[in-house]
Amino acid sequence: MEAIFDKSKVKKFLISVAGIILFTWLFFKIFPYIAPFVFAILLTFAIEPLVKLLVNKKIPRKLASLIVVFVLLALILFLLVFIISRVYSQARDFLETVPNLINEAYAIITSLLDSGNSIFIELPEELANFMSEVFESLLGYGGELINQAVNSILDIAISIPAAIIFTFMMIISTYFLSSDIIRIRRFINIQIPVFLIGKFNAVKINIQNSVLKLMKAYLIIMSVTFTELIIGFTILDVKYGLALAAIIAVADILPVVGTGGFLIPWAIFSFLNEDFTRGISLLVIYGVVMLIRQIIEPKIVGTQIGVHPVLTLGSMYIGIKAFGGIGIIMGPVIFLVLKSVSQVVFKHQTLKELLLLDRD
């Protein structure tokens, strides 16, 4: 039987798809300007069960919201103080050893240069010049890496005030939203048609469930990475191996940092320090972690969010192309949003049901 397209259905479908894509594009375009309030809304939903629990204990909602937000703020401050104090302590210990490390590195580089010069003398002139240029390029690349590291530290220092403002706005907004959530809901219900509220609630629930599953997927990946690292560090008898494995596993979720941001510089320093066994071992650990992650990530993420691994890979690739390194996470998140909105808008219908004439 020949398939006959329903023009009105096709038109409605195309308009709906265009609307979904436009809405998603606009949202992520303006996201940097509304990020504190978006996270405030998410936090409001997250703390609502605790606020309701206090309200049921005959505590006024405004006071209940203030208590929960205060506890949340205290927890954030405690974590920040703990992290900053640990980083400061480790940085202080590291800075105390920096002069010795610089002296050792200088001695190693001087030795390499002397060895290189003696080798270059015995080589043909053209080859010696080429090798000298390669060696100088490597040294220049090392200098660039140091400059990049310094610039990154400066960028982090500059961004601290913005992060404080962001957190302050988010916490204050969370309190106001939580304390007035009943009035806000009543206002929205008055302004928006009932059928749109129903669709919005369906999309919200769908996205919440999907995001929770995505978080679960990355927690599983983080646990696998942590296990691999702790096994490797135990074999190498690394001091503070447990803490280092935990820090690197968390950083591995961040595409800009990743496992390589720790293990590769560590391996290079080991080679410069003539600890070749440790340097090679660290590179092997890095290779194993990266290989296993590349294999399991699409499968785990796809299984948790209910899509085929190929689609997950596609969303990651498009995310990387569009957003850079962070796109490996943003890609699946945007895909989840589009998937959740589409399921509600199209009511889980197939393309046949959406586009073709009914043949009863």
Radius of gyration: 27 Å
Number of helices: 11
Question: Major sheet, described briefly?
Answer: none
Helix content: over 70%
Shape: globular
Low-confidence stretches: none
Order of helices and strands: HHHHHHHHHHH
Q: β content, as a range? A: under 5%
SSE layout and pairings?
Layout (H helix, E strand, L loop, with lengths): L6 H50 L4 H62 L2 H55 L1 H11 L2 H43 L4 H11 L8 H13 L3 H30 L3 H15 L3 H19 L5 H5 L5
Helix pairs in contact: 1-2, 1-3, 1-10, 2-3, 5-6, 5-8, 5-10, 7-8, 8-9, 9-10
Write a brief structural summary.
The protein has 360 residues and is mainly α. It has helices at residues 7-56, 61-122, 125-179, 181-191, 194-236, 241-251, 260-272, 276-305, 309-323, 327-345, 351-355. It folds into 2 domains: 32-191, no CATH class; 195-360, no CATH class.
Explain the overall architecture:
- The chain has two domains: 32-191, no CATH class; 195-360, no CATH class.
- The mean pLDDT is 75.
- Helix 2 (61-122) packs antiparallel against helix 3 (125-179) and helix 8 (276-305) crosses helix 9.
- The protein is globular and about 80 Å long.
- By secondary structure, the chain is mainly α.
- The protein has eleven helices and no strands.
